[in-house]
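Sharing a chain and its predicted structure for anyone who wants a worked example. Both blocks are below, sequence first, tokens second.
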Amino acid sequence: MTERLGTPSPNHADVIRRPLRTRLQWRGASGEALEVTLRPRESATIYDVAHRAGLSIASVSRVLNQRGKPTVETRERVMKAVRELSYVPDGAALALSRGLKEVVGVVFRRGEQAGFAGEDESPLFDEIVNRGIQTSAHLVGFDVLISLVSGSDAATRLQVLARKADGLIIHDRVISAPQLARLAALTPIVTLASKPIPGVLSVRCDNGGGMRALVRHLAVDHGFRSFGYVSGHVDSPDNQARARAVALEARRNGCQLLRGPEWVGDYSAAGGARAISALLSAGTRLPRCIICANDQTALGVMHALDRHGFPVPGDVAVTGFDDLAFARHLRPTLTTVRQPIREMGASAFDLLHRIIVGGGGAHDILLPAIPVVRESCGCSAA
């Protein structure tokens, strides 16, 4: 049988703390009556913390929500009670007290990572980044709102999205640096794959270090003396950093580098294929190795080379950047630069969440980018 014992107290704290008790009765071996009362384990409440600390609920709330200016003694008494009771603040109540929506917005440039004509869009990089963001967000009870923006209305769209979320994660250059700085003054922002902007924290990979190491491998280990660089979006900070690294390392090794308007892609397979087809149609002599801004571009470049009768890597070597899953399944397998894409997403959310809840220690995060050599540059399958 289950019963509530005692008379309800007018003290609300006492009512909340009073649990249900279960009384078990049975007969022993000799027929005697036996009885035990079980009191289920309960979670501590803010009332318990206040009672243990000998303080008012308002004082405890100010300490836990980091509001006002409680004294050092008050803070120590509250935290001592929290430790002793293993008290965990209710997430929804904490969010409500801070006016949080428990939603973050994630923004990508519309149209990136497109497939070949007639195929559905294939946002591989974006999808992997989002997995990292969503995994970390769900651990702390946040939801993720994803938006694709482009064109002149991007800044307006971001302002609308900012009103629906506690903060934004923005990939690449979807708005200008001044616009981004103005938006960051209104809402917490973390950028992905972007160069540093004053007042805006970022998570990015070491584009320069990874690309320089790749070009050294191609120039020194394979002896290639001529390169071409098929770019991503010309205004993309990632693309710009990778292009600078290719140019710097090619010059250091005395190699020729072909680039320019005719070598511009858009981070898509279709864009890479179009660039190479146009170059060949114009009678351009191809370099010994074509370095691509990302794996999707490399996929399109290899497709176009095959259609025009140029074996890879026999006639032209090809490399990418990202190390997406398909890179190891192409024939030939794709030499590329691996960046921890999912970790970028997870780190971006963790950094943004720290800003939203007022945690300290927030700073830019730089993740490693490491060359992965495979068959498309002339290395063995092993």
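Comments welcome. The longest strand covers residues 21-27.
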